[in-house]
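pasting for the record
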Amino acid sequence: MSNDRINPSRRALIAGAGAAGMAGVLATGGAGTARADDATGQRISVARNGRYDTVELRQPAINVTAIQSRVRSVDIRNLRQTNSENLAHVLKLIDQAQGSAEEWGGERLWGSKQDFLCMHEFPIQGWQPWNRTELQRIAYELPGPESEAIGERARRFDCYISWGAYVRDPDWPGHILNLSILTGPDGRIVAKQWKGRNALGLFGNFALIGTTVYDVLDQFVEMYGWDEVLPVARTDIGNIALTAVGLEPMLYQCLGLKGAEILVMTVTGGSNAQSAIDTARANRIYTVGVGNSVTADNIAFPEAAGVRGDGSVIVDPTGRTLAQTANHHEDFASTRIPIADFRATRRFPEIPAAILLPVLQQYQPTFKPNGFAERLPETYREAAELVRERMSRD
């Protein structure tokens, strides 16, 4: 896909806007509001002197559950049936997390109402090394039957539900988007947060083909603005950021600086409880680390594929584990978060931006952004070849 429609001078401006946005934060002047303007004049919502954008909370504390579920992949040879089975399984887990199993007539007989349910990166579709043609069949449209079914549960239980999926978008023809989705208590999608970036150059003859923000950065900023590059959903249960990016501490830190109060880490096959603990402590935010369970009958994988660390966790801003799954089977980790008290007493880590900014401005990564701007790889092997080309070119 070409970015020729973007004006060259505009592209140059966009390229420097991230650093300029940070410079705008440095040029502070008193308390002010939680905002900074980048070089394009676009508003970036970021904490300033401890203040950041919020909406009014509907209650002072919320119940949160991490749903540690299987990652059973759909079968491209029997797509409709296996997708339907996986969706039904996810809906059953939502009912169980709310203590309202269908077998009990939908009545809550166990536990408390949960205000926020968190699932991992691919709870319905799973993952296989599908090629782009196959992913076009597997990917969802939003809204669609799957999002509507999850939305019905969100309405039924008056809760928020986060989940991930491969998605097709008519604004991005040919691309397969890796989205983290937040569904609200009215059943509608509150946020569709793109994956920020994929790991590059780490897998030899294999690389991912789902499009991330980093892969099409210039065009993404042109269409949505810099504030959406690292998005935070400002809801009436708190500011929520969802990320399927693993091992990226500076990205998590920037989401915190943008006002995230609850960070949900959802890396299917790569989640690690210790990473969530470290992230919560370093950034002083509540962190939900959602892993996947062991998975029977998963295509081409052993049952324990992708099971790591100490299960799924919910961690407070001091790094203290509030809830944790008991094992690596399907399970729930649930706790209560005093979100209003946290917001009233929150203190951000002091980031010495004045001494970091010169390094960040001059650092040159091996892999520059916009790797999918000119062509899209059809397979994971082609994606690896594109990565090697970018290494030699850059």
